[in-house]
Design brief:
With 610 residues, the protein is α+β, with helices and mostly antiparallel strands. It contains 18 helices and 23 strands. Strand 18 and strand 19 form a beta hairpin. The protein is elongated, with a radius of gyration of 61 Å.
């Protein structure tokens, strides 16, 4: 260009007229030449050393590129250098001296020599299209906003129509000053056809649709709205279909931009169902009050989140001794003794997270500081609005616990008495045979209550074989008659191998169907008595033997002795006869001695057995 002033002048003129920043790049030497306007469009004229001076491409291009555009712009330029036949045109943002980003359109062309070979030079321009880009962006935004608004208007119209027509119990009417229809919702068309039994149309008089008995009241309300009043009235009517309906009617005047009344709108809402629900709610409230206040147990309702009471019944005030006003708002932990607070707090949290009914036995403390046992039954938490509540029943166990303690004392005394008397008790459910045995019953049969499940068949198996037939006949009899049975005596062999003699007796009970369903009885261990009786029999036998010995064995030798001594005493025998008599007397005395020793031995064994 320096060697061709005319060409240079035209070249510069074109760049100036087009407000283009010119640049030339030597691919071989990687040198970049820029004109003055290249820098002026970036507000960097003070960095110009000379027009078309040589610069570092990194310093005057790469360092000024937007960080988001840097990699893409360099890659595009490098690709053009490798493929110079294609068009070079790209947009990127460069940093202006004022700190703003300028949008640049960069175009370039690879130069060729006279032989149409690439010379290694690339000539290009930079054009500031920031305003054009902003206009384009604004146009695109405006176009998008327009499309969005257009869609929104269509959507709003559809939504408005859907809103007006969707409620089945709400219909909307617009009426002009001549009482003619300006418009109405689809619900009113269906209502008029089904209930009023009329076909409606725009321009039709509203009074032509209404029953004659409603026209006077309707006109009165219409005139109020046409006078500029907005108001709500609730009416109930019996329509031609024979049903009574309740309506909440909202009247509003239609006013133009000049304040002139053109007509009015009527929003009629069928509240018949609401009225029915209100009546049902009223009945439910009455039932709630009856059940809540008439319950036998104390009922407390607490806020599940805070644990504070929100409602209590009269039984609760009686149980705790506080008034209802004092209880409502009180934290539930204040109703329990201090040593149970940790347990109660844990249970409360457990109840609030459960979906089933649960109960627990704890203690409460009343207003006088008296501690009472109670059973708390809590249901699943229930929600009212956005709040979660927990209802619990408190049953006073004071009387019940005292009765249980008394029963346990009586049971303990009965158990001791059974042990002393060796009498066990049992209860059998018929016909299945499941049983309940007392501790003494288990002791009699040498079984452990902690290891054995009582059953009538279990006892039957213990009865010895010789007594099985008698026992089964007795069982069959007591299983069919009501009242006290005849006792039966059997012998059993316990698991420990002991033979025991028992007497069994009891009472059968019938159910409402007249069937024996339960048998309650006692078992008396008479083993010791039987053994004693056997001993007495043996003793009696010995006594009889002793008596026989006295009357026969002792009497014979004694009679011989008495007869011999009588002969000797009367001196009627000779000397030889006396010697014979003395010898016979000695033999009789020996026989008597043997009998006496035998009696003594029998008597001794009798004493030992006793």
């Amino acid at each position: 260009m320096a060697n061709n002033p005319i060409y240079s002048s035209k070249y510069e003129t074109l760049l100036a007229v087009g407000q283009l920043g010119g640049w030339e790049y030597n691919v071989l030497t990687q040198e970049l030449w820029c004109n003055t306007y290249y820098f002026e469009m970036l507000g960097r004229k003070d960095q110009v050393t000379a027009d078309w001076a040589c610069y570092s491409i990194k310093e005057v291009w790469e360092n000024w590129l937007h960080p988001e555009d840097l990699a893409k712009a360099k890659e595009y330029f490098a690709d053009f250098i490798l493929n110079p036949e294609k068009d070079y045109a790209q947009q990127f943002r460069m940093l202006h001296a004022n700190g703003e980003w300028v949008t640049i359109l960069s175009r370039a062309l690879a130069m060729r020599n006279e032989d149409d070979d690439l010379s290694g030079m690339i000539i290009g321009t930079h054009l500031d299209i920031t305003q054009n880009q902003q206009l384009s962006d604004n146009f695109n935004i405006t176009q998008k906003e327009y499309e969005k608004s257009k869609k929104q208007v269509v959507k709003d119209n559809a939504l408005l129509k859907a809103i007006l027509n969707s409620p089945k119990d709400l219909f909307i009417i617009a009426i002009d000053k001549k009482y003619q229809f300006l418009g109405f919702s689809d619900a009113y068309i269906a209502f008029a056809k089904k209930v009023l039994q009329k076909e409606v149309a725009i321009g039709m008089s509203a009074f032509d649709v209404l029953p004659s008995e409603l026209q006077t009241l309707a006109k009165s309300n219409y005139d109020r709205a046409l006078a500029g009043e907005s108001f709500v009235v609730t009416n109930n009517f019996v329509f031609p279909d024979g049903r009574r309906r309740y309506y909440e009617n909202k009247y509003n005047p239609i006013i133009d931009q000049h304040g002139k009344i053109l007509g009015f709108t009527l929003f009629a809402n069928d509240v018949s169902l609401i009225k029915a629900q209100e009546e049902e709610t009223r009945i439910v409230d009455m039932r709630y009050a009856a059940l809540f206040d008439g319950a036998e147990d104390a009922i407390l309702i607490a806020d599940a989140a805070s644990g504070c009471l929100v409602d209590v019944n009269d039984r609760a005030t009686e149980l705790f001794g506080y008034t209802k006003a004092e209880l409502v708002g009180m934290h539930q932990t204040k109703l329990h003794p201090p040593d149970e607070l940790t347990k109660v707090a844990s249970l409360f949290q457990k109840f609030t997270k459960s979906n089933i009914h649960q109960f627990v036995d704890v203690h409460i403390i009343d207003h006088k500081g008296k501690i009472k046992p109670v059973r708390i039954t809590a249901g699943a938490p229930f929600r009212a609005g956005k709040y979660l509540f927990l209802a619990a029943y408190f049953r006073d166990l004071s009387t019940e616990k005292a009765a249980i303690d008394k029963a346990l004392t009586i049971q303990e005394m009965l158990s001791k008495a059974e042990g002393i008397a060796h009498v066990g008790s049992f209860e059998v459910n018929l016909p299945e045979g499941h049983a309940i045995w007392s501790d003494e019953m288990f002791r009699i049969v040498d079984l452990s209550p902690n290891e054995t499940l009582a059953h009538k068949d279990l006892f039957t198996q213990l009865v010895i074989e010789d007594d099985q037939e008698v026992y089964q006949k007795w069982m069959n009899k007591v299983s069919t008659i009501e009242g006290e049975s005849t006792p039966v005596q059997v012998q059993i062999k316990t698991p420990k191998g002991s033979l025991k003699h028992l007497i069994i007796n009891g009472v059968g009970y019938k159910n409402i169907q007249g069937e024996i369903y339960k048998f309650i009885g006692v078992v008396k261990d008479i083993t010791t008595r039987v053994i004693t009786m056997e001993g007495l029999k043996m003793q009696n036998q010995k006594l009889r033997e002793i008596a026989w010995a006295q009357s026969h064995l002792v009497r014979g030798p004694l009679s011989d002795i008495l007869g011999i001594t009588k002969i000797i005493q009367d001196d009627v025998a000779s000397v030889q006869e006396k010697e014979l008599l003395i010898s016979q007397l000695y033999e009789a005395a020996q026989k008597l001695d043997l009998v006496i020793k035998d009696v003594v031995n029998n008597t001794s064994s009798f004493d030992e057995s006793a």
